[in-house]
């Protein structure tokens, strides 16, 4: 089975592209075609002529779908991307994709889990052959236990900033979107293959999934998408409530990382989501120069507070809810003041026209750079297709960003300023204020 | 998992098979056929994959058999494993291991 798969061509209709065809110049943003199949599966493809084809299967199986006792299932789905499926063994998947110089990678967030296969354009069918198998994972118990160490390593590698962001989600949403994208430690080795298969059955629905490609034509891709066999799947996950409050984790040492957030914009409200994205860049989504200071409201607030704090705005837009705030990392003795100043900045909702102009410029630069690399483009297209069931081309997105007025950004800042705050903190928590102190 | 349900009894019932089974003698120690397989790499891997309960039962039967052998006794006749009750619990796992090995060998031959 493993041996002949790389030789047979399952999808003969793939248009062969030679290297003699001029590849797309770097930075040129290609057009994106979108198709919706009868089973509501969205197929989107950026039909550029590129030597490397990427195809991604994006499934609505992110951590927000986990119940209390299946927490960590989406992390295991990411981990099990290369393990045996019901039709092919882990060995066959790895060797056949390697043989044609391809890679299979997994990624995910709270909404989706994505499998991306990257191959040269003339070997795309080998990649697709194994990509389609991933819809029927086997989760053999011994393969899961063999990979327990990898899972533990992945958990050890999660940074404190990331854990603070996970904690603030927990405080803000409690369940659903509050579930961490990383498996909690108490679930290590506890998730049986039966419960994982049940999770797959519930979440791998065509109506929540998308098949997206870069460098493959839309007809080939939708031909491939039509052959996919989805388990029945269920409806959308329940809509989240905003709670706010604290989620704290004490650890040894002097470092403290605090994430504070209020309600942000949902993807379903496109204008508001864009306004929050502009706001994120305007108040300081990281320094423009290496080890430089973050510009904008948050950067100023940290500079006023003194000490050695580093701040970054966080903005997360999910399909029906959002979260906006900052994550600050500092020595424990300075963190109280830094958080106090930053919360004051967050609540002030002061955004000048200069801030908005800078925010728009930064956001547009980020969007263009995301769209101009194939690896960035496939993820962006995959997320958009899975969440909004449509994909905006770069020009349309840039025009939409330009169309956001200053008052809309100010309204976004007001919304987050007046919302109940959620605080996620990890590290030495001696001087970290509680959410009730910040109100 | 559904595909790992073990076969109970022999593939084909026959009086000759019954006679041979009873003559072999391992059933008098309460062992099953799959407890007596020579532990080559394939069997070791298949045993490793057994669910915890089957794995423990196998170990218990083997320990009991070793103890009986040491004391030069056998089980009372009503506790002997019967020809039609012999569970081939390792078979599905072993088949899969062999298939995977053959797949690897095949690949190495062709690439």
From TrEMBL, chain A:
Molecular function as annotated in GO: metal ion binding
Cited SUPFAM superfamilies: LuxS/MPP-like metallohydrolase
Highest taxon listed in the record's lineage: Eukaryota
Name the record gives this protein: Peptidase M16 N-terminal domain-containing protein
UniProt keyword annotations, A-Z: Mitochondrion, Transit peptide
Domain annotation Peptidase M16 C-terminal: ranges: 190-361
PANTHER family: CYTOCHROME B-C1 COMPLEX SUBUNIT 2, MITOCHONDRIAL (PTHR11851:SF226), METALLOPROTEASE (PTHR11851)
Name of the gene: Dana\GF23920
InterPro entries for the chain: Metalloenz_LuxS/M16 (IPR011249), MPP/UQCRC_Complex (IPR050361), Pept_M16_N (IPR011765), Peptidase_M16_C (IPR007863)
Gene Ontology annotations for the cellular component aspect, listed alphabetically: mitochondrion; respiratory chain complex III
Cell compartment(s), UniProt: Mitochondrion
From TrEMBL, chain B:
Chief location category: mitochondrion
GO CC terms of this entry: mitochondrial inner membrane; respiratory chain complex III
Key words, A-Z: Electron transport, Membrane, Mitochondrion, Mitochondrion inner membrane, Respiratory chain, Transport
Alphabetized Pfam families for the sequence: UCR_14kD (PF02271)
Highest taxon in the source lineage: Eukaryota
GO biological process: mitochondrial electron transport, ubiquinol to cytochrome c
Keyword Coiled coil among record annotations: no
Topology of the protein relative to the lipid bilayer: Peripheral membrane protein
Cell compartment(s), UniProt: Mitochondrion inner membrane
Family label: Belongs to the UQCRB/QCR7 family.
Protein role: Component of the ubiquinol-cytochrome c oxidoreductase, a multisubunit transmembrane complex that is part of the mitochondrial electron transport chain which drives oxidative phosphorylation.
Assembly, per entry: Component of the ubiquinol-cytochrome c oxidoreductase (cytochrome b-c1 complex, complex III, CIII), a multisubunit enzyme composed of 3 respiratory subunits cytochrome b, cytochrome c1 and Rieske protein, 2 core protein subunits, and additional low-molecular weight protein subunits. The complex exists as an obligatory dimer and forms supercomplexes (SCs) in the inner mitochondrial membrane with cytochrome c oxidase (complex IV, CIV). Component of the ubiquinol-cytochrome c oxidoreductase (cytochrome b-c1 complex, complex III, CIII), a multisubunit enzyme composed of 11 subunits. The complex is composed of 3 respiratory subunits cytochrome b, cytochrome c1 and Rieske protein UQCRFS1, 2 core protein subunits UQCRC1/QCR1 and UQCRC2/QCR2, and 6 low-molecular weight protein subunits UQCRH/QCR6, UQCRB/QCR7, UQCRQ/QCR8, UQCR10/QCR9, UQCR11/QCR10 and subunit 9, the cleavage product of Rieske protein UQCRFS1.
Protein name, as recorded: Cytochrome b-c1 complex subunit 7
Source species: Drosophila ananassae (Fruit fly)
């Amino acid at each position: 089975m493993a041996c002949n798969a790389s030789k047979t061509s399952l999808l003969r209709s793939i248009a062969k592209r030679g290297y003699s065809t001029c590849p797309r110049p770097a930075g040129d943003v290609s057009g994106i075609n979108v198709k919706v199949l009868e089973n509501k599966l969205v197929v989107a493809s950026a039909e550029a002529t590129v030597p490397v084809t990427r195809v991604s299967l994006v499934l609505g199986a992110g951590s927000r779908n986990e119940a209390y006792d299946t927490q960590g299932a989406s992390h295991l789905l990411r981990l099990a991307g290369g393990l045996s499926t019901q039709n092919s063994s882990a060995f066959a998947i790895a060797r056949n994709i390697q043989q044609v110089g391809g890679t299979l990678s997994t990624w995910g967030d709270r909404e989706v889990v994505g499998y991306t296969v990257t191959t040269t354009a003339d070997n795309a069918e080998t990649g697709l052959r194994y990509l389609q198998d991933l819809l029927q994972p086997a989760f053999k118990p011994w393969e899961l236990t063999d990979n327990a160490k990898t899972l533990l390593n992945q958990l050890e590698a999660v940074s404190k900033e990331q854990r603070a962001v996970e904690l603030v989600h927990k405080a803000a949403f409690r369940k659903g979107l509050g579930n961490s994208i990383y498996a909690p430690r108490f679930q290590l080795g506890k998730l049986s293959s039966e419960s994982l298969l049940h999770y797959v059955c519930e979440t791998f629905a065509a109506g929540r999934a998308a098949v997206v490609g870069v460098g493959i034509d839309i007809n080939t891709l939708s031909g491939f998408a039509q052959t996919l066999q989805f388990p029945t799947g269920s409806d959308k996950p329940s809509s989240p409530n905003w709670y706010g409050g604290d989620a704290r984790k004490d650890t040894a040492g002097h470092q403290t990382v605090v994430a504070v957030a209020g309600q942000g914009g949902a993807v379903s409200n496109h204008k508001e989501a864009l306004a929050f994205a502009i706001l994120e860049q305007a108040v300081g989504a990281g320094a423009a120069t290496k080890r430089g200071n973050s510009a904008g409201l948050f950067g100023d607030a940290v500079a006023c507070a003194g000490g050695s704090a580093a701040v970054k705005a966080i903005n997360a837009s999910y399909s029906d809810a959002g979260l906006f705030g900052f994550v600050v990392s500092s020595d424990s003795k300075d963190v109280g003041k830094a958080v106090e100043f930053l919360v004051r900045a967050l609540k002030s909702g002061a955004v000048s026209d200069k801030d908005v102009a800078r925010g728009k410029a930064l956001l547009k630069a980020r969007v263009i750079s995301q769209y101009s690399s194939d690896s960035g483009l496939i993820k962006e297209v995959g997320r958009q297709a899975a969440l909004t069931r449509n994909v905006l081309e770069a020009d349309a997105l840039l025009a939409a960003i330009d169309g956001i007025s200053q008052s809309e950004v100010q309204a976004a800042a007001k919304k987050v300023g007046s919302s109940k705050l959620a605080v996620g903190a990890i590290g030495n928590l001696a001087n970290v204020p509680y959410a009730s102190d910040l109100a | 998992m559904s595909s790992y349900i073990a076969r109970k009894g022999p593939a084909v019932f026959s009086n000759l098979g019954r006679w041979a089974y009873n003559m072999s003698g391992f059933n008098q120690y309460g062992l099953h056929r799959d407890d007596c397989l020579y532990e080559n790499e394939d069997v070791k891997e298949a045993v490793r994959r057994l669910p915890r309960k089957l794995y423990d039962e196998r170990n218990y039967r083997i320990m009991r058999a070793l103890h009986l052998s040491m004391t030069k006794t056998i089980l009372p006749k009503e506790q002997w494993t019967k020809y039609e009750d012999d569970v081939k619990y390792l078979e599905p796992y072993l088949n899969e291991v062999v298939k995977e090995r053959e797949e690897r060998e095949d690949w190495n031959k062709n690439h």
